[in-house]
Design goal:
By secondary structure, the protein is mostly helical. It contains 18 helices and no strands.
């Protein structure tokens, strides 16, 4: 079971680095995706389709890699992550060579997005693997570094895009990939050292992993949770993927978006740092249900924001919604799912968030163009409410 410890160890520090690397890279395909794709000539509908396809690819790849790692425990996470890193780098170079709208750039960005999204699923299973071989890892603290890194890169990219152009996003993403590669090597070394001190891996290898259909049959409640997550993240990404539209409607631009994204990431940190204490007071399912309610409340606040200061202040609700969910759903899944299927469970959770991004991209782009900001965001509130209800049914005390 994942333990959200208080102490900082070398393993935690190294895992902080790969977490920071992923979330810095994610900034390119989340808050800055619309900035880049609009910058090279795509409309809201077109960029929505590209982002949707990228998230579909990420969802499929995350699920397949999760199943692959469960069935082939001798395959190293570092090997998979290295392949994904090289694939991302090639796609970024192609985008720099051909930074224009059209089918080629759309296809390249889709592949890049798919590979990036799969990194998160592999990283999360790496966390579970480290814990099960006795590595001294504080997941909550390590995940908080992802939010801090996202905060810093959001502000930096906001200024850089304003000062230069949207093409600076490619160079920044390539630099982050180099950082990710060397961070992965450090964590790989930590895992190998922990494995030599533990017999957990030999036990794990004797336990056959379930096929995906069997996994769903055996974990029906968890499958309901996945449906709720899809709906919640459809609503969540209607804001995240198209935040620049909301900000422009309130009179702002890319600099303001950078500051708002940074503030939003900053408010996540206290929840993640204090995660080690939360499980002692209530079951993880209790906190997940609370987070579902706050997803609804935060989106309602965004939809009704009359000006940029209110929109900025409403980002405080990111802490009890997204931050609470993201830091506790990993140990929750580790509690309710057998370890032999841990990679599959983490992969499916990532896939569920990606599918939410797909639906948001497909519907959101068209709705922002046809209906405007407020009607689109109010629709997101309704979707979040439905997702919260389904999520309640899909959680149980563990």
């Amino acid at each position: 079971m994942i333990r959200l410890k208080k102490r900082i160890s070398a393993v935690t520090l190294h895992y902080m680095l790969i977490t920071a690397g992923f979330w810095m890279a994610f900034c390119f395909v989340s808050t800055n995706a619309a900035v880049f794709l609009q910058g090279i000539g795509y409309s809201n509908v077109q960029l929505g389709l590209i982002m949707a396809l990228g998230n579909v690819g990420g969802a499929l790849l995350s699920t397949l890699l999760g199943d692959f790692l469960d069935r082939h425990p001798r395959i190293r996470h570092a090997q998979v992550l290295s392949v994904l890193t090289v694939l991302q780098a090639v796609m970024l170079v192609l985008l720099r060579i051909h930074p224009h709208s059209g089918w080629l750039s759309g296809a390249v960005y889709t592949v890049y997005c798919s590979a990036l999204m799969a990194v998160n699923a592999v990283n999360l299973d790496l966390c579970v693997r480290l814990e099960h071989v006795g590595a001294d890892l504080n997941f909550g603290l390590a995940r908080s570094m992802g939010s801090l890194a996202f905060m810093v890169i959001s502000v930096l990219l906001g200024f850089l895009v304003e000062r230069f152009s949207h093409l600076v996003l490619i160079w920044a993403s390539l630099a982050v990939l180099v950082f990710q590669f060397f961070s992965t090597l450090l964590v790989h070394r930590d895992l190998r050292e922990a494995e030599t001190r533990s017999a957990a891996e030999s036990i794990r290898e004797r336990e056959p992993s379930a096929s995906l259909p069997r996994f769903i049959r055996e974990n029906r409640t968890f499958s309901i949770l996945l449906l709720g997550v899809i709906l919640l993240f459809t609503a969540h990404n209607t804001d995240g993927n198209f935040m620049i539209n909301e900000i422009r409607a309130l009179g702002g631009g890319t600099v303001e978006m950078g500051w708002i994204a940074a503030f939003q990431a900053l408010v996540e940190v206290p929840v993640m740092v204090l995660a080690s204490r939360l499980g002692k007071k209530h079951p993880y399912a209790w906190y997940l249900r609370a987070s579902f309610l706050f997803f609804v409340l935060k989106l309602l606040a965004y939809a009704l924001a009359p000006n940029l200061p209110f929109f900025f202040a409403a980002r405080l609700l990111q802490a009890p919604s997204y931050a609470l969910y993201i830091v506790l759903v990993v140990p929750y899944a580790d509690q309710v799912i057998p370890h032999k299927d841990s990679a599959k469970a983490q992969g499916l959770l990532v896939s569920a968030t990606n599918l939410g991004a797909v639906l948001a991209s497909l519907a959101g782009g068209a709705m922002f163009d046809a209906l405007g900001v407020r009607p689109t965001m109010l629709a997101a509130v309704a979707i979040a409410a439905l997702g919260a209800a389904v999520g309640f049914m899909g959680t149980k005390k563990a």
